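Question:
Write out your own:
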Amino acid sequence: MTETQKSDSLYELLKSCQLGESGSIVGSHLDRNQLRKELYVRTQEDELVEKFFVENYHADGKLLILTGSAGDGKSALLSRAYEEASDAGINALTPDCMHMDATASTKKHETYVEELSSFLDSVIGDQRQGGPRKGLAINLGLAIDFFDRQGKDTDYPDIWDAIDKVRARPRVETDDILAINLSHRQTYETAPDRLGSGLLQEIVERFDATDPESPFYDAYQHELSDCPSSEKCPLRYNIEQFADEETRSRVVELIAASSILHNSYLNPREILHQVSSILLPQSLQEYDHPDAICPIGRAVNYNAKIDSQGLIWNALFTQIGGDGDAENSYLDPAALAGLETDQLVLNWTADSSNLELQVGDTHTIKWDGSSDQIRTALRMRYLKDGQGEEPLSQWSWFREFAGALAFLQHEDLTEADQQLRTHTQNLFGTVKKALRGWTGSTRQSNQIEFVDGVRSTDYRFLSEWNDPTIDPKQSSERTRSESLPGQLWLVLEPQQMQANQNQIPVPIRFGLYLLMKRIIRGYSPNSRDLEQSEGIRLIHSRLSEFTQKDQIVSVIDKSGDELVHLERGELGSIEIADRGG
């Protein structure tokens, strides 16, 4: 063991960024405080909290509530605010003013319900008497349990009301309470030309261990001198490849695209986990050793063959979706077919020396046949040089969807640039055409035709439909209230609204939008699509709301014979005629 302790090694620091690790920096109580501080990225929410506890501070008993999901950074944000208030000389704020872990109980024989109740009682007292401001970090699920299931909503109605309201929006403010839902925090841009920029990109940049400003820099310098296998070490190889700015840029873009495609939320904890797992994947951690500064280098020095999944090129695609994930094929340049790729693979297959030149020095890697090498080489070409087939993040349909998502996420739509407007107009047109011609051909009449592919006999559901308009403002407000990444809402309004009609919000994810694109080009959904697509089920279930089925509905079999006819009669009655004989 050298001067460098294993706990300070590059291997251990990267491992501590991953979920489920003992002493992890992404846990609620952070052992590695210095690394945590250096990885922290300020966002707009930091400014709001800083104003609350520092710039606009008064002894008025106000309460700040930070809610959201595990890993959103609630405790870290509250902890930094307390430190800033202390540095600013606001002595009225004591540790007791910050309840950073609502799931814990610090007192023996006291449940979290009792301790949280005691804290909230002190909040109520300070609000009445003008005491110090306080902060509460609480998971939304726990808040629902405490206030709803435990019946505490009647004891603290104003606090519960603020939490309940902030579930559907980024923040809520009353005279006594500021509630912020961090699950609504935008962690990356979705605009196609800025995809991934923001918190995601800034955290990724911190992992460039060759940068003297990186919190991993000192550990990397020790890795260069202390690793037993030196330049043969796959961990060192991953770090050096990640030092390339273009490679990091493509990694950021693909992580963001994966989040949109899979509707997975990238909070700070998840970002730290994903990036560290790309540099130190699970396959490399199989060689862990209690006394080794670099267990991977030690294994290589003992002639171990490292699995190819330990290389950054493969670890990325395993992390963002898994090799067996069908949707991940949209992101993986090794899964995309094209003339250039086909010719390249044929060339590599014909002369293995060309393939070896692509993947470089591989004597420490255990390859699973030539297909493993080819897959790695194709991924490597794209991530390093941008060569090869363009993955989904560059695909025009995805750019259109991501651009519309970015447009609808604007608080002021007038500030959105023209390119985003064009993407949004195209998306609006696609959705309307697809809804009108659901069987694959656009009908010129005011009717929707929907093929029920689940039943053994196909039926067409025909009903009157006034071509709806899409309300951009309402669609934007509904989309901005959405906490599910990669989902936008279109609020449709019939052209001739009647008194009993409402605007109809329609949820659109990329998978459904992809299906709609195919529908307007002649594709008809089959039973498998209907069973597997949540979006299709939602559209199907809401069909009656934007088709005016309350006026007239016909059910027609394959031969075109009308089996059932429903029509609204006088005084709101329904007339049903069985035509099936």
Summary: The mean pLDDT is 83. The first strand starts at residue 63 and ends at 68. Residues 399-578 form one domain. Residues 387 and 558 are 49 Å apart (CA to CA).
